[in-house]
Write a structure and sequence with these properties.
Strand order of the largest sheet: 1-2-3
Helix content: 55-70%
Oligomer: single chain
Length: 384
């Protein structure tokens, strides 16, 4: 019988396979030809292979054991601290790599590979919030001892990221607050934090001219059709030209200098243009299936930390996909956020596949000798 983890892995394999094909198609120039050889010998194919290896390697890791490590020596905490330090480093002139007007990237020494430290923070925050809520589940209903410290950490991470990447900061904030609520916080506590979060987003938009311009262009893209509204218009045109049947794989027109960031943020528009309604529906169906299977694993998981961690990973992928598709279809204002496992980005593919591999690993039976939940920090204290 096929296990849920195998279905989850199959969905990831399908998305990565589709990514290799569509990113290669979107990246060809007018003088190039899309062939099987160019697709499967490309750098994207190598990244996809590494992502698959990362997923299967991660599926052998038992997150329930990681949760029992000492707080400051826990791998989750170490990764989070590393990610925050690298995020700060990316903002330093001549250290970070500035692409498209944002200093979000760092270059790996002695290679041409760049990566976003905020991606590392994104996944580490899921683990850190889950770890805190699991260890403090009996105190999460208390404002100062349970809720406030973890919300402060979430706010710190978002503040470091929001200057250069509002979309990722908002995504981290949304998913983290859902996890805090699922971890035992009260609705009224989240309600108190909501106005501060909304206010911070408003200030981030108001304090940036290009973000204000994006809001205005969303309200009327044709007011500046060759400027701020250009990407939205070209995205809608690509979707409209695809129609029901699509132009055919490799036959899209918008990728030839018309649609910006066609291999990354706007890859869904290329899928719509070349594969039509069927291709667009397939992508949406794969993400819905991934969430359904992932949430099934969450429901069956008995370990508190592992359950919250898996929930965070599934929400991170699902909400990020929702935001990207909403941006490409011009349902929400333009925002540079990738489509998970589909938009070009080797490190993004690897880290997302690794996180989903950890979720798949939770579908394996738990050793009989292991406790079923994280022991509260105060349970070992003697009575009286």
């Amino acid at each position: 019988m096929v296990q849920p983890r195998q279905i989850l892995q199959l969905i990831v394999l399908t998305l990565l396979g589709l990514a290799v094909v569509m990113v290669q198609s979107a990246g060809v120039t007018i003088t190039e030809q899309l062939t099987l050889r160019t697709m499967f010998t490309s750098r994207n194919a190598i990244y996809a292979g590494l992502a698959v290896l990362a997923m299967f390697a991660a599926s052998r890791i038992d997150m329930r054991q990681i949760a029992r490590r000492r707080a400051w020596f826990n791998p989750v905490i170490l990764v989070l601290v590393t990610g925050l330090i690298l995020t700060l480093a990316a903002m330093i002139p001549h250290v970070g790599v500035n692409l498209n007007g944002s200093a979000r990237w760092l270059r790996i020494p002695m290679s041409g590979i760049t990566f976003q430290p905020s991606e590392l923070v994104k996944w580490a925050m899921v683990g850190a919030v889950a770890l805190w809520c699991a260890r403090r589940h009996d105190r999460m209903g208390r404002f100062t001892l349970g809720f406030l410290p973890i919300v402060g950490l979430i706010g710190l991470a978002c503040m470091l990221i929001v200057k250069e990447d509002l979309g990722t900061a908002a995504l981290i904030g949304i998913v983290s607050m859902i996890l805090v609520l699922a971890g035992g916080a009260r609705w009224w506590q989240v309600g108190l934090a909501a106005p501060l979060s909304v206010g911070a987003v408003v200030l981030a938009i108001a304090g940036s001219s290009y973000r204000r311009t994006r809001i205005l262009s969303y309200l009327d893209p044709f007011a500046d059709a060759r400027g701020s509204g250009y990407q939205a218009i070209q995205s809608m045109l690509a979707i409209a030209q695809g129609g029901v049947t699509g132009r055919g794989l490799g036959n899209g027109i918008q990728k030839f200098g018309y649609l910006p960031v066609d291999t990354s943020d706007c890859i869904y528009a290329i899928i719509c243009e070349e594969l039509g309604l069927g291709g667009a529906g397939l992508v949406v169906g794969l993400y819905l299936a991934l969430m359904w299977v992932g949430l099934g694993i969450v429901r069956r998981c008995e370990d508190r930390f592992a359950r919250l961690f898996a929930l965070g990973v599934i929400l991170m992928v699902g909400i990020q996909a929702l935001i990207n598709i909403a941006v490409v279809t011009v349902v929400v204002p333009t925002k540079g956020i990738a489509l998970p496992l589909l938009s070009a980005g080797g490190t993004g593919w690897i880290m997302t596949a690794f996180a989903l591999g950890l979720v798949a690993g939770l579908d394996r039976p738990q050793p009989a000798t292991a406790p079923t939940s994280v022991t509260p920090m105060n349970s070992a204290l003697p009575a009286g």
